[in-house]
Amino acid sequence: MASIYIHIPFCRKACHYCDFHFSTSLKSKDEMVKAICAEIGLRKNYLGTNEISSLYFGGGTPSLLEIEDIRKIIAAVNLHFRLNPNAEITLEANPDDLIFNKIGEFGESGINRLSIGVQSFQDEVLKLLNRTHGAMQAIHAIKESQKAGFQNLTIDLMYGLPGLTVKTWENNLKQAFELGTPHISAYCLTVEKKTALHHFVANKRISLPGDDITAVQYEILMEMAEQNGFEHYEISNFCKPGMHSRHNSSYWNNEPYLGIGPSAHSYNGDSRQWNIANNAIYMSEIKSGGCWFEKEELLPSDKYNEYLLTRLRTSNGINLAYIRDEFGKARAAGIEMKLAPYITGGLLWHEKENVFLTRKGKLIADKIISDFFN
Ligand code: SF4
Fold it and tell me: 60-81 pLDDT, tens per residue?
């Protein structure tokens, strides 16, 4: 099994916290769709004979595309790859794009999962983040998507936001669970360099909640998700039974993926490559048959670190027998030797050959994982 990611590098406006690759000028949208379809053909051998179980439109804001653009891209994937007839086909959408007619058209085009960028149900916070939508629009978009027949819906929420108190975070979560989407991704705000938010924080125009408040917000998230029957299957991802994101799970299960479009990353088990994060150069290199990506061969230590990084964040944890077989006895023994203080400190737990993060461990997951890196 394998998956394909399509990066749509356009947004209506720039959210203050965002460092993804996108342009707010939509002038080259048609040319970009052509270049994306061309790249799909040019890279038809990248995934070998693997069947495609997931196709994901991310960005940027893929919901800005016309329905014809989406049809063209799905047709190009069908032409050059073996797309499983039951493949998960996800489209990331901003609430302001989800009007009833368009949602219906998304469904007819083959999209069977919507990922809605809600982020918050508080207008003041959305305004502070420079989002294009308000809270009521987000609620409306979710309800309209449900009415249009989308059962497989996920929403993105953020915590650790400026102005987000513990109480308002609880209210956000309450609202999310009441809306009944079967999947929620919740991310802690990180202040990335070169973003407007970084500038505002540096100039003290905006202040962020402290780590203690952010940790409480994450604990509330875990608690409320459990009470509402959600499985916490990855640090930032929660779902009703059976409603896991197939696409993200394929990354965490070390399956190969092909990334199409500017800035998209690809992985085939032995190497990684990433497309240039510049719309004009990407389109011109695709057109002229030039080179639009960089590539890195993975060393055994890279593969081992990647395994730790992705798997320890999931509810499957890491498996010592697998590490012994794939990466050598010394690495597995190295982990076993280091485990004791993490287990007595209540950060990890160990069952047979598997090692998992505890709730307390999830609060400092990045630190724990890097302690075990090669
Ligand atoms: S809509 Fe998404 S990709 Fe675009 S600026 Fe906002 S967060 Fe970034």
Answer: 999 999 999 999 999 999 999 9
The atom number, within ligand 1, closest to the CA of 18 reads 8
Q: What is the DSSP string of 157-199?
A: EEES-TT--HHHHHHHHHHHHHHT-SEEEEEE----TTSHHHH
Please report, for the chain, the start and end positions of each structural domain, with discontinuous segments joined by +: 2-252, 318-371
pLDDT given for residue 100 in this prediction: 83
For ligand 1, whether the C-beta of 11 sits within 6 Å is yes
- Burial code (b: 16+ CB inside 10 Å, e: under 16) for 45-67 equals ebbeebebbbbbbbbbbbbbbee
How far apart, in Å, are the Cα atoms of 144 and each of 101, 104, 301?
A: 10, 10, 47
Which atom, in ligand 1's list, is nearest to the CA of 130?
6
Residue 282 Cβ < 6 Å to ligand 1:
no
Q: Give the orientation angle of helix 135-147 with respect to helix 166-179, to 10 degrees.
A: 20
Dig out the tokens for 335 from the structure: 């982990």
- The phi, psi pair for 357, rounded to 5°, reads -80, 140
State the distance from the centre of ligand 1 to the C-alpha of 82, rounded, in angstroms: 31
Answer whether 0.70 is exceeded by the pTM.
yes
Closest Cα partner for 209 from 166, 265, 154?
166
Q: Give me ligand 1 centre to Cα 130, in Å.
A: 10
Output the CA 263–ligand 1 centroid distance in Å: 14
Superfamily of domain 2-252: Aldolase class I (3.20.20.70)
The structure tokens listed for 62 are 């893929």
Place of tokens 């502070």: 128
